[in-house]
Amino acid sequence: MGLIEEMAARSEELAQKWADLILGTYPVETQAVWRNNRDQFSNPVGHSILTATSELIPLLLSWNDAEAVAKALDKLVKIRAVQDFSPSQALSFVFVLKKLLRQEFVAQLSSKGELEELMRFETRVDNLAVIAFDLYVASRDQIARMRVEEVKRAHTNIVRRANLMKADVAAHKAD
Amino acid sequence: MAKIIKPDEMLKSINYAPPATDWMDLPNDLSPGRWAYPAKLEKVEYLMHEVPGVFGNPRTWNPADPDWQLPSNWKEIVVNGFRERLDKYRSLKLFMDICVRCGACADKCHYFIGSGDPKNMPVLRAELMRSIYRGEFTLAGKILGKLTGARVMEEDVLKEWFLYFYQCTECRRCSLFCPYGIDTAEVTMMARELLHLVGVNINWILEPVANCTRTGNHLGIQPHAFKDIVEFMVDDIETITGKRLNVPLNEKGHEVLFITPSGDVFADPGIYTFMGYLIMFDAIGLDYTLSTYASEGGNFGLFTHSDMMKAINGKMYSEANRLGAKWILGGECGHMWRVVNQYMDTMNGNLQGPQMQTPVNPITGTVFKNAAQTKMVHIAEFTADLIKHGKLNLDKSRNSDIIATWHDSCNTARAMGMFDEPRYVLNSVVDNFHEMPESTIREQTFCCAGGSGLNTDEIMEIRMRGGLPRGNALKHVVDKHGVNTMACVCAIDRATLIPLADYWAPGVKITGLHELVGNAIILDGEEERTMNLRQEPLPGMEEE
């Protein structure tokens, strides 16, 4: 069995292990709570992590739909973009997949002299990181935009009145 | 030259796992974005003059600086203040003693759910204060120290309080799950009171409080400007309905004084809700007046100190007395109703003038016995009563493009128990309504993450992660039912839910309840409407 076939056969297990590694980027007290709760509404972060890894493993294997990959990444990236992470920590969840793949497959592939297969596959993970980076920056841009828009909305009628006053002053000058 | 590490060494050194440090020993991270801007010096000075003994240490300071310019005896002030409050409030002493750390609250806070920061678990947030209680006030804590989870007051602890008691919106969702009924919001209130004594504060709360005290509303808009702004909305209503409404302002001798949050007057989209109120009052011929002195229903004093809250709240009765109003109708607001429902009668009930009476709906004759104490009725109750008696002429089809869901605001839901009245009104003015999942509505509703004075833009990331549980439930009904509108009865919600929805559930519009009511009401003598209150084309009126 080649790497792709074996990953496909163990897809669910790998998704779970990858999710575990991602959960490991949170404080231990939090992990304890999040690992025990799979409810979508009371534990949206834990749920989103497992959903993302479960969707991404098959997409990485088929690797023919960039939009679907971006969609599967989106929510988790958005979550980590507003959590207390540096940018590198926020996106580390992609790179821990490499750690997992090496842990699971290096020994076996190198004994067969097929390590190249893993290296080829890791390019997909690198691409995943690049897509995640775009989504991350888009999220951060959105945060900045929302701040400005909120300030404008908060003063809608004040600005309206200020403009009116300005118009009055201008009219007075024109007289 | 510095040693350059080899790639394989570097790989080994990269570790994304957080350090396994005990929470008490974790250093505070005071990077920008993790705190709201501190209050301006002149606002603190003004408030110290107006309400003595509540605020202190006015100065220009920056939480990112190591030196917070605390008074030299700050520790004494805080510890004495703590002792004083333990004596004054039995509830605080109980909350400090009784917690058994069962963990029922741990994963109920929206900030914890979204951030994963253990100090946002309500149990641990309260522990930030309990540890000091043990260390400073209990014998066991004084002798055994850390063994009993005790510590003494230090500057780092104060900084930690500033970080985390300003990551609590006092929404009280955690209290719902506490087997002892510990009200974590009250723990937060006490911590903030202590912080205020030594000048550790945020501007987003103190500036509105100062403005409110001085001119009557959060933005400090003076009466003549306030009148102009109300006129804008009368103009807009004329554009939309062809009818010019009379809006009494500061007039004596009316039956009802109407008070709403000033956000409804100044801010988009609250202004459409405000127009909705005016349209409804005209439709039923309500004998009412607005006031500029009491032009703010919201009471940010609640987020500072009970004396401050009391002073601001007192304006409502003073103005009702001056204008001779028999009762007060209150607009769509959240924490305003926590203050009214839970504290107003105790704090200021003695200010009610002899002309004030238990509110009676002049159109239907319904007596609002629930408001016998405060003489103040929530507009959702009032409107539900009007609709129930068939007193409003409604055209639902004007809202037929709306697929709505309902956001229960924390304070009207958990502090007031108002669940069904707004839903009844909403269902009367829209055709399509879908609830969000049960564990995220009514008593269990998730906060907008901007309550208790945290709806400021400099902490947008904190708000977004805190808003995840709400946004996540909203996204669920967007995907499942095509929901495109979330309605609510809270001015802070109307402001904070917009970015929350943009980020977590794009495409959902936020409206106040009475915006939708105003759209649906058919006024006597109005022209055929082609647009809604936002001046967008009504369904079927879109240009070809």
Please describe what this structure looks like.
The complex is a heterodimer of chains A (175) and B (544). Chain A is mainly α and 175 residues long. Helices cover 85% and strands 0% of the residues of chain A. Chain B is mainly alpha-helical. Chain B starts with 6 loop residues before the first helix and ends in a 24-residue tail after the last helix. At the A-B interface, α3, α5, α6, α7 and α8 of A face α5, α12, α13, α20 and α21 of B.
Short description:
By secondary structure, chain A is mainly α. Chain A is built from eight helices and no strands.
What distinguishing features does this structure have?
heterodimer; A: 175 residues; mainly alpha; 8 helices; disordered C terminus; B: 544 residues; 4-stranded parallel beta sheet
Biggest interchain interface, per-side counts: A-B, 42 and 53 residues
Task: State the low-pLDDT regions of chain B, or none.
Answer: none
Please tell me how large the radius of gyration of chain B is: 25 Å
Strand content of chain B: under 5%
Shape of chain B: globular
Number of strands of chain A: 0
Q: Biggest β-sheet of chain A, characterized?
A: none
End-to-end separation of chain A: 89 Å
Query: What percentage of amino acids of chain A are in beta strands?
Result: under 5%
Percent range of helical residues of chain B: 40-55%
